[in-house]
Every structure is written in structure tokens, then in C-alpha cells.
Amino acid sequence: MLTIAGAAISTQSAKSADITVTTNADSGTGSLREALTNAQSGDRIVFDFPANTTITLGSSLPSITSDLSFTTLNAGVTVIIDRGGFAALDLAGGTINPTGLTVDNAVDDPDIIASASSVVVGNGTVTGDMTILGALSPGANANAGTIGTFDVVGDLDLSNGQLQVDLNASNGSTSEDRVTVSGDATVTGATLAFRFSGDQFQTGQQFLILDAGTALSTTFSNQTDAFAIPNRPFLELIADTSGAFTADQLGFTVQDNGVSFATVVDGCNQLSAVAILEDLRGTGHTGVDALVNSSGDTMSSAANALSGSIYPSLIGAEITHIQNNLESIRDRVMLQRYEGVAPPAIMSWARAYGVSAQVKEDHCKTLGYYQEFGGMELGLAVSNQQGLSSHCFAHLGGGKVETSGADQHADIESYRGGGSVEYVGETLYLLAAGGAGVQSYDVSRSLAVIEGSTSAQSSFDGTSQFGYFESGTVFSWHAINWIPYLGLHGTRVELDPIAEAGDVDFSLSNAGGSGDALRGVLGLGLQQSGNMGLGPATTRIRFGWLHEYLDPNEIFVSSVASPAVTSLLTDSGVNAGRDWGFMRVQLDLFQFLGGQTSLAYQGQANSRSSFNALAAGIQWIR
User: Fold this and answer.
1) Which of 85, 297, 599, 619 has an alpha carbon within 20 to 30 A of 117's alpha carbon?
2) pTM of the predicted model as reported, rounded to 2 decimal places
3) How many helices (H) and strands (E) does the chain have?
4) How far apart are CA 276 and CA 274, in angstroms?
5) Of 372, 327, 319, 323, nearest to 543 (Cα)?
6) For residues 66 and 521, what is the distance between their CA atoms, to the nearest angstrom?
7) 220 to each of 116, 187, 192, 210, how far by Cα in Å?
8) How far apart are CA 252 and CA 244, in angstroms?
9) 50: preceding bond cis by omega (within 30 degrees)
């Protein structure tokens, strides 16, 4: 193993050896000819002369067929290779760095010829006329992102070859590969290949890639093409014809390619938002100009920030909140029995509740939201011995809705009240409930992702109306009451007109909006009562299926503050789905403060959304 390791180390050393030229003789020990003959791929030929020296050839030098580079050991020393009329130095293959070479000949013909299978690299100067049929890649190596200047003191013929150009834009500045030629530069039939690094390309940047000293009389075959810049879908690189460069220079500039912003987004609300941004394209708007220079991800984030999807989503969130508040009332008053209490029985209750709900991004890429809410539920019920009971109730609460994927936030207060009537017969029961409420909203949308923009705020009110009807039956089996039932929720939520303040360009205004829901319930309840050490207790469990019959999301149409914008912004609320599974649990437990404690859980979920609520309180009966 040691032998193998040693061999490996030896091989590695051989691949990167320095071969020193110490004599200006045409051949023999220490000569350039010997160095070229013995050189292996990856070697470097080092000229070690104390003063300027000329190596006069007696015959053509061996071809270079593998990776090789040249350097001079002593700074300021020039080593001239006098061809003496023999063949040009032949770069027949491999990646070769000829910078540092000076090749001379009395006849005006190529001093160095690189074949079509070679790659010429370098960040320095080559003295002599060059013909490159392969690729020329300025820089210390041919790796992408390696910037350098390849300087030819003489003529350069790159006909039918390729110029590989690295461009960089990062850290607030730009840099580029460049070829400078003191004589004529010929590029007939040659191609350009650009490689980009950095993430700060922007319109108006200019790059000088070829500078000929006397004449640049031909053009690259693809010089007039527009070159795409990776991860910058709205930019392209084109030959600069602005007059910023001379006739013997070739420069390129970055410009807006005119590709629609809509090509990088696919969400319904995003498509509407980028139409607003398109209206400001080319107007000198700082934020939109920056978006032209941005990535597709940044454009998508800007579209989400501009979208006012939080407004219609507030309606959907409110509808689900109201529906579950009604379900809570239903669980509190339904099929109550007040043993030992002479009719009419009067029940009052108070309980605190907390809500956590989440809706995911939908199929149209509309952003989801997270909701937190807390409040109080208050109620009073009266029942008689004929199976009739009536109830009144109120919900007082406050909370927030936050958009997922954009900095949009709403603080909400809601106040609702209503009543219900229940009839319990021998074979079925009926429950009807209804009410109304008011809401107040304070909404903030951050627009910071759009350069130069700030935020927009609005405060407005809303109203709600709701109703619920349920019919079911009760039968007993194994000391458990089984309660199959059908229910129907009807809810309407309206938001007043909205006028945002704040950002001068992207604040929104609209006429408000409304949403309706009609949700059917198919459920099964289980109820059992018994005595605990601290008094009677009742457990109620319900589960089933909930279906929405109407359009599951709402649409708002808004105008944008900027007078330069002619498009309207259309925002849909997130689609939370049409069907949910649900479970409700209520436990009436021990006596406390003259009443009976109550704990309750409500949950419903589907693949897109979830809703969870907990409540705790006391009911009093007399």
C-alpha cells in the first residue's frame, strides 16, 4: 500500500512539474526543445535566464499536445524565440497557456497556431502573431468564472474558432474577460460563448470583450444574437451599438429583453399582479426597474406582496369562524335535560374559547393564511315541559389573520349575537338558529420586496348574517344516546369599501366585497350521562362530513394608486376546499362556582385546511 501511495504521489508530482530552460541553445540539456519533448500534461516550462535572451531555432519545435503553460523565473527578463523561418509553434491539443512567450520571425506569418482541438487560456501577454482555430478563454484557466485579460502583441486570427467570455456582476461591480490585440483582429466565422457569474446583472451594464489596436474588420457569426443571462429571465446581453465603443472594439450591454413578467408566475393572483407591474415597466419606476433585473423568484415574491389576496381571504376565514361558533352554540343547547329542575328551566353559560386555523396554498397558487382568534361566548336558554326551548347568545372576540408567503397581516374584532329555537318530539328534534354581527379590521401589507416601496394600511368594517337548521332523531343503545342528524349552515359576510393609505404607487382601493356559504352537515352524535364523585357528568361526541355548495372563494377587484397603472388588480381568496371531516367533543363535568364546568373541542380538516378550537366555561341552571 505504501508503494501504491508513493506511486500516486509521484504521479501527481509528475503532472504538475516545472521544467526549467537554462540554455538558449537549439537543443540539448536545458534547452526549450528538450523541455517540450519531455513535458507531460500539466507541466510548466520555466525560462531561467538572468538577462534578456534569444533562442534561435535550428528546426521546427515539437508540437504541444497536452496541457502546458510557460513562465519566466526572473521578472523583467524577456526570452525571444526566433523561429528563423521554421514552422509556427504548434499548439496541437490540450489546454495551453502561452502567456509569457515571445515568438519572432522575419516573415509576417503566424508565429503560434492553435489547432481546433486546443483551448488557449491566459491572463497575460503573448508576443507574436497568433492563429487560433480552437477556443480562446481568457483567464488563468478555462473554468467558468475565471476572469482575465489575454493580450496579444501582434495580430490575432480567430477565424472559425471560439471566444469564451466570462462576465461577472457581484459586490456592486462588474468584470469581464477581455482580449486585447495590438495589431489586426480577424474573427470571420468565429463564435462567441458567454458564461455568467454573480447575481447583480442589470440593464445598462457594458462589457468590453475585444479591443483591436489597428483593425477589427469582421464580425463573429453570432455577434448579433441576444444572449440569455441565467436566472435573470428579463435580461439579455446584446452587442452594444450605442457608440460607447470604437469601431475597433467589441462591447456588449445588458438590456431588458421585453419578456413578459407573466412567464415566471403561474398563480391566478400573481398573474393579475404582474400585469400591474407591466404597466410601470419602462416608465423609470425604481422598483419595477429593479424587478426587471431580478430573478423569477423575486418577481414571484413581488407579485405576492402586491396582491391583495388577504382581503377576500378574510371573508373565507370569517365564514368558517362563524360556522364553528354556531356549532358551539348547537353543542351547548342541543338536547339538554335538567333533572330535578321544575320547568321552565333557565340555563345561562359563559365560556372562553380560542381558535387556531390554517389554510394552505391552493391549486391556483393563491397564498394561504394562518388564523388565531380568542373570545367569550355568552348565552341564556329557557325550556319548558312541552319540548320547546329558546336561546339567545353572543360571541365577543378578537384575533388575527396572517398570509403565508407574504407579509400581510389583519387584526380583527368581531361582535355577534343571535338566537335559536329547539323542539324535541317523540321521534325527531328540530333546531333553528340565526343572528348577525359586525367586524372591524386593521390590515397591513408590506411592499418592501419591491425596491423603493413601503407598506399599505387600511381600516374598515364588515357585517355578517348567519343561520343554521338541523333535524335529527335520538335512539338509545347500550346506555348511549345515538343521534344521527342533518344540518345546513347559511352564512353571508360583507366587507365595507377599502381604501389603503401608505405606499404612493401600490396602495389599493376597492368597493369591498361579500361572500356567501351554504354548508350541509351529515353527522352522528353520541351522548352519555352519569354520576361522578363531584356530581353528574355528560359526554357528547359528534363526527361527520361537511360540504360547501357555493363558490368556495371570493374575488375582489381593486385599483392601484399609481396614475400610470391602467390595469385592475383581481384577487381571489384562497380555496379552502368543499369538503371537510369534523369532530366535536363536549364534556360537562364537576360543579364549580355554583354551576357545572364545561370543556369543548371543535375540529374540522381536509387536505388544504384545518380548524381547531378549545372552549372552557361554566353553565348555571335554575
Assistant:
1) 85
2) 0.85
3) 6, 43
4) 5
5) 327
6) 79
7) 17, 6, 7, 11
8) 10
9) no
| Residue 572 clears pLDDT 50, i.e. is over it | yes
CB-based contacts of 264, cutoff 8 Å, min separation 6: 233, 296, 299, 300
Phi/psi of residue 231, nearest 5 degrees: 60, 20
Beta bridge partner(s), residue 492: 465, 516
Query: Nearest to residue 109, comparing CAs of 83, 133, 91?
Result: 83
Sheet strand arrangement including 555-560: 498-499, 508-510, 555-560, 569-572
Distance between CA 566 and CA 275 in Å, rounded? 9
The secondary structure of 228-256, three-state, reads EECCEEEEEEEECCCCCCCCCEEEEEEEE
609 in Cβ contact with 370 (< 8 Å): no
pLDDT band at residue 9 using 50, 70 and 90 as cut-offs: very low
Domain CATH code at residue 401: 2.40.128.130
Helix (H) / strand (E) element for 527: namely strand 513-532
Domain hosting residue 108, numbered range: 17-256
Of 294-308, 313-327, 332-346, 587-601, the one with minimum mean pLDDT is 332-346
In three-state secondary structure terms, 127 is: strand
Other C-beta atoms closer than 10 Å to the C-beta of 213 total 16
Whether the Cβ atoms of residue 573 and residue 366 lie closer than 8 Å to each other: yes
DSSP 8-class letter at 41: T
* CA dist., res. 368 & res. 405, Å (int): 8
Does 150 fall in a domain?
yes
- 97-108 residues labelled b (16+ CB within 10 A) or e (exposed): bbbbbbbbbeee
Same domain, 130 and 198: yes
Note the pLDDT of residue 4.
31
Cα-Cα end-to-end distance for the chain: 94
Residues 233 and 105 in one domain: yes
Residue by residue, DSSP assigns 441-497 as EEEEEE-TTSTT--EEEEEEEEEEEEEEEEEE--EEETTEEEEEEEEEEEEEEEE--
Q: Which residue has the cell 386555523?
A: 357
Cα separation of 182 and 135, whole Å? Answer: 20
Task: Check whether residue 412 and residue 492 sit in a common domain.
Answer: yes
Q: Distance between CA 38 and CA 68 in Å, rounded?
A: 12
Type and span of the H or E element at 273:
helix 268-279
Exposed/middle/buried for 48, CB within 10 Å: 0-12, 13-18, 19+?
middle
Task: Please check whether residue 6 lies inside any domain of the structure.
Answer: no
Burial of 386 (0-12, 13-18, 19+ CB in 10 A): exposed
